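step: validate -> pass
step: tokenize input -> pass
step: predict -> running
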Amino acid sequence: MPIQLRENQYRGINAHLHSLLQSEGRGWESFHNAHITNLTEAIDLLLPEGYYALNEKSLQLSTFNPDTGELRRSPTRPDVGIYGESKTHGAALSLTGSRPTAVIPVIETLVEDDRLPSVVIFKMESDKTTLPVTRIELLSPGNKPPGAHYLQYMVKRTETLESGINIVELDYLHETRSPIRVIPRYPNHEPHSYPYAILVSESGPSLSEAQMAVYGFFVDDPIPTVTIPLADADTITVDFGAVYNVTFSRNRYYGTVAVDYDGLPERFESYSEADQQRIRERMTAIRKQSQD
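step: predict -> pass
step: emit ->
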């Protein structure tokens, strides 16, 4: 008999749902769009005066034709944009939420490739003009290797950091490796690898000195609460787990149609042995709770 519940039954990312969403045509785009909307709303409430958050719809991204090598520009949708009043940019990364599991020089996360113009996140000056501050990306399968848009995404990412914009990347897709080459590959079961991660890159005054904080977490771990940089010394602390649970519970499809805790997640073997055990333990707890 199916076990289906409206609220997320995992402490963090719902392994049952995200295994389903990584199947072609099974709803990742819908989840992505809903979660970005919820993130925008939550972050806008946290921002100090002089900042605002938007769900941007018409930034430019380079597209790459692997057959011809041609780079051309086309409209696309970036994720969450944060805006605010312009000041001198470049404070040290301030992290007062969860502790990162690794800290990596940003220069090691960049790609050597032709650069194209990048437009991402913005901030408001006293004369009402805007400047970019921080961009938040929920990574999609196409932006991760071997996805079709991986090269375009990395070019855009590199240019964003070079232009002085901070990037926060949410990687909730365990079946594909991180787009950052120096991060251990979970699909290959490499040591010190995680199925999920939040990456916080502060551009700083110099990319050669900038750092990327990696918040890796396992199946059934709480999604980290992370402090993200704005301009100067300004920061906000975001409870990404709370926002994730809002997205899960607001659409009844996820809990009452897509997810069935009576069976294992799709492609269960794609998880590490330790995460497989965590999933089994979570399923046992859910069954017990449903019988009480």
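step: describe -> Residues 57-77, 86-95, 113-121 have pLDDT under 50 and may be disordered.
step: cleanup -> pass
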